[in-house]
From TrEMBL, chains A, B, C:
Keywords: ATP-binding, Kinase, Magnesium, Metal-binding, Nucleotide-binding, Thiamine biosynthesis, Transferase. It catalyses: 5-(2-hydroxyethyl)-4-methylthiazole + ATP = 4-methyl-5-(2-phosphooxyethyl)-thiazole + ADP + H(+). GO terms for biological process: thiamine biosynthetic process; thiamine diphosphate biosynthetic process. It comes from Aminipila butyrica. GO terms for molecular function: ATP binding; hydroxyethylthiazole kinase activity; magnesium ion binding. This is Hydroxyethylthiazole kinase. Catalyzes the phosphorylation of the hydroxyl group of 4-methyl-5-beta-hydroxyethylthiazole (THZ). Belongs to the Thz kinase family. InterPro entries: Hyethyz_kinase, Ribokinase-like. The lineage of its organism: Bacteria, Bacillati, Bacillota, Clostridia, Peptostreptococcales. Pathway: Cofactor biosynthesis; thiamine diphosphate biosynthesis; 4-methyl-5-(2-phosphoethyl)-thiazole from 5-(2-hydroxyethyl)-4-methylthiazole: step 1/1.
Length: 273, 273, 273
């Protein structure tokens, strides 16, 4: 079922505007190209809205936000809303500093996001239901497990309803939901957490998938999450005992590059709740 | 014939100042090291001209230009002109926003560039003969093909004459020309377009090649274009069916690392027009 | 002896705050993850001290310093001192511009660093005993050789005493010393100098090693230097004739990912002087 979603990305080749951090930006650009999309990065206030206008989706990632790029995030987000482009938020490190938490919340107040994707600590922080922080990684106490899954699904649906958006909480188990429906996704490998930027890259893919599949945004977001996890599984099988997180990173992008609809259909592991 | 040009880079090891984007900057640094040059990145107005002074070439790339780095581009460019260092412009995304187009044009008014390298959409935009945009990639309507080659060569020569510089329009077919002579280069692989930064990396190589071969700038630029394309061909042969654009990126840099003069001589495919 | 130091990093998983350059930042994040630590990058003055507060070590790298990030370096450094966190300085390109030299010196005046790690040209510049510059690489005239080793050890000890810090001068031969004791380390490969960021990555590892081994800072710094050099040796053995600096970079990070205490114990090559 999800196979068509990646094939549409390859067919339409959406141009995705990314205002993102400088840590993982190269991997973000390469994974968008790997999926068949086209990336552009632009974060100066003098051009942010212009660049949004020529693109068909916007990805805002606060991983290394600063006083110059924050205004560009707002300008681009508002322009994207005007043009009805999909807009995705990756609230990297929300909870780690007041600036990150407040910027993410203010972005959510002033901009209508189609999807908010973060780890469990980030999303809990934004929903103000607690949430610890271990910097940009999820705190162990926040991680979604089999024991906490039912509660986590209810939380995702409630928060999605409250914010009027799709919420994607990703980790060992991923939950992608709107107010009514949640996809519980079990693709991926724990070793993906040892690579910087797997979350950022996933958010890029979500932007591309929504742009190419605008009629079915929830499924498109879930398909992107499955695709990223499946790429992690495929890449993992290539690793030798001498390989580590650097080679694994390249192989994951390579796996997206080679991922076709049929493979995604067969490999996607999810339940609808 | 071009073999000496890369050997001179390895012999002289020029220090190249790069004011460049944060998307592809790591690959830019590594490909300069791979070619035997030495990179330094510095984009603050307080040090830009100082850094230019200790280097022997300057590469200005507007891929993520902003209000802080634009003044540094002008200061560094003027200093490089004073010192008669080769200065190269990579007008990434010219046409994608007013800021990019106007900054690139203003840079070309105030700084004497030895080479301007871009894709066909970027160069056409700057020459104000149309030019569409697909962000940082060339629009299909602008691509140089066998059918449009003769006209494209004439355009490159005319624009080179107008601007008093060498113009390099790169894509499936590359044209590197001054007002009198154009090298039409057929090295490379289409899959290189699926890697972010192959253009940026090429511009770095051009800077290094000109710095190490200052008496023959046109040939040096053409040699750099052949070297990058040939590296793309050599790297492509190493790929397995599981590999994609991430591994391909590493292999291209590796191929530059291992490229000797003899291999470049044998592998360069070009015609003089 | 050094094996415990990396095992403690994996056990404790320190969160390391990095204010660093955008050239090598991705490799810095991945090598910290590879070692078992957790990275966060944050360089805006509005959050720098907050981020420092939730971390357990701070790494300041001036590789692409600018007017916005310099104040963040001071704010974060002072907060780290208040909290008695290990603070490490990587004075990238000190000597290459007045801004770099003066910023590094001022940082050293106002912040108490536990370790200063640089190449021989950078450290000599800071100690004002000469020091040439080749941008971010050491000038040949400054390199530590067998002939200059005894003098270099004496210099490291004297400068360490003067500054009240551990000094790490790294290159073909590494010297890590305080006023009394110097570790002379002979791990590593000359080809590591052809990869951008091996120095930056090493500084990250030093921060993580000190954080996880706070009672033995000198040994922890020396252990990190051995680990990085050993990773370079292990990675080098995997290279084929087609590989170059890009693949080598990935393999070095991979080697850190797989490095256990026993391997580090066996592979560390050092003398105490």
């Amino acid at each position: 079922m999800f196979g068509n979603f990646i094939e549409n990305v390859r067919l339409i080749s959406p141009l995705v505007h990314n205002i993102t951090n400088y840590v993982t930006v190269n991997d973000c650009a390469n994974i968008l190209l790997a999926a068949g999309a086209s990336p552009i990065m632009a974060d100066d206030i003098e051009e942010a809205a212009d660049i949004t206008s020529i693109c068909s989706a916007l990805n805002i990632n606060i991983g290394t936000l600063n006083q110059n790029t924050i205004p560009a995030m707002f300008a681009a987000g508002k322009k994207a809303n005007e043009l009805f482009h999909p807009v995705i938020l990756d609230p990297v490190g929300a909870g780690a500093s007041a600036l990150r938490t407040s910027t993410a919340k203010k972005l959510m107040e002033e901009i209508k996001f189609d999807v908010i994707r973060g780890n469990s600590s980030e999303i809990k922080t934004l929903a103000a239901i607690g949430g610890s922080t271990k910097g940009v990684d999820a705190a162990e106490t926040d991680v979604v497990s089999e024991e906490t899954l039912t509660a986590a699904i209810a939380f995702v649906k409630a928060y999605a309803e409250q914010m009027g958006t799709i919420v994607a909480v990703t980790g060992a188990i991923d939950i992608v939901g709107d107010k009514d429906t949640a996809y519980v996704i079990r693709n991926g490998r724990p070793e993906m957490g040892k690579i910087t930027g797997t979350g950022c890259m996933l958010t890029c893919l979500i932007a591309a998938f929504l742009s190419a599949n605008p009629q079915e945004k929830l499924k498109a977001a879930a398909a992107a999450v499955c695709a990223m996890g499946l790429a992690g599984e495929i890449a993992y099988k290539r690793l030798t005992t001498a390989d580590g997180n650097a080679t694994y990173r390249s192989y994951i992008i390579d796996a997206i590059y080679n991922l076709d609809g049929e493979t995604l259909d067969k490999g996607a592991r999810y339940a609808i709740r």
